[in-house]
């Protein structure tokens, strides 16, 4: 894979705990004690946080002496279009703050916007737009629980162009408003 993504250790840790398949192929979880590496969506028992190391490239993780998990088989691609989808997802993760049009994404990967939307939906069951919204809401949720920024600051920080759209999408994906989400998680 060519493009690295901008995720902190904590964010990647959250993705593996949630078994988030959106990030499969963008990074790999290597467990120092077992010398095994997995996809973020692997359903195997989760390791201790201190035993985890993250890699962006499968060649690097194997070069470091780790072997592939037999359960999630991170070394095998299940689709001929997976590399294109990975490039799109990496682009979305790295550029989520910007105002993105479907054509911008299509230009980045070198296909038509029609073909991109159809292929992406076939592979992920989502459109690039809904995928981007999920990335933005994930980032917003992380900022809500780890910073003291206002909801409005977070709205613009994660790339939403209007607060009303931010609140609508956040509620749809998290089943609460940003304020309710922050309050709920800070109580725990």
Architecture overview:
The protein has 188 residues and is an alpha+beta fold. The protein has 2 domains: 9-68, DNA Methylphosphotriester Repair Domain (3-Layer(aba) Sandwich), CATH 3.40.10.10; 77-188, Homeodomain-like (Arc Repressor Mutant, subunit A, Orthogonal Bundle), CATH 1.10.10. The chain has 9 helices and 4 strands; from the N terminus they run αβββαβααααααα. A 4-stranded mixed sheet has the order 3-1-2-4. Helix 3 (82-95) crosses helix 4 and helix 6 (128-146) packs across helix 9 (178-187). The longest helix has 19 residues, at 128-146. It is globular. It starts with 8 loop residues before the first helix and ends with a helix. One of its GO terms (molecular function) is DNA-binding transcription factor activity. InterPro entries: Ada-like_dom_sf (IPR035451), Ada_DNA_repair_Zn-bd (IPR004026), Homeodomain-like_sf (IPR009057), HTH_AraC (IPR018060), Me-P-triester_DNA_alkyl-Trfase (IPR016220).
Strand content: 5-15%
Summed up, the domain count is: 2
What is the CATH topology descriptor of the largest domain? Arc Repressor Mutant, subunit A
**Which stretches of 5+ consecutive residues score pLDDT under 50?**
none
**Major pleated sheet:** 4 strands, mixed
Average pLDDT across residues? 89
Reading side by side through the largest sheet, how are the strands ordered?
A: 3-1-2-4
InterPro entries: Ada-like_dom_sf, Ada_DNA_repair_Zn-bd, Homeodomain-like_sf, HTH_AraC, Me-P-triester_DNA_alkyl-Trfase
Cofactor: Zn(2+)
Keywords: Activator, DNA-binding, Methyltransferase, Transcription, Transcription regulation, Transferase
Protein name: Methylphosphotriester-DNA--protein-cysteine methyltransferase family protein
């Amino acid at each position: 894979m060519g493009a690295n993504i901008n995720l902190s250790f904590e964010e990647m840790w959250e993705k593996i705990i949630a078994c988030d398949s959106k990030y499969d192929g963008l990074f790999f979880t290597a467990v120092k004690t077992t010398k095994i590496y997995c996809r973020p969506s692997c359903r195997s028992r989760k390791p201790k946080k201190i035993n985890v190391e993250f890699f962006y490239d499968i060649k690097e993780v194997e070069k470091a002496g780790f072997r592939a998990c037999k359960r999630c088989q991170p070394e095998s691609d299940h689709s001929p279009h997976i590399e294109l989808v990975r490039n799109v997802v990496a682009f979305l993760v790295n550029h989520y703050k910007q105002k993105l049009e479907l054509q911008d994404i299509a230009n980045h990967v070198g296909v038509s916007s029609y073909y991109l939307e159809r292929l992406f939906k076939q592979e992920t069951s989502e459109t690039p737009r809904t995928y981007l919204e999920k990335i933005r809401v994930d980032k917003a949720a992380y900022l809500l629980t780890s910073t003291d920024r206002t909801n409005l600051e977070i709205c613009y920080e994660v790339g939403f162009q209007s607060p009303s759209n931010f609140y609508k999408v956040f509620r749809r994906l998290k089943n609460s408003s940003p304020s309710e989400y922050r309050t709920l998680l800070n109580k725990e």
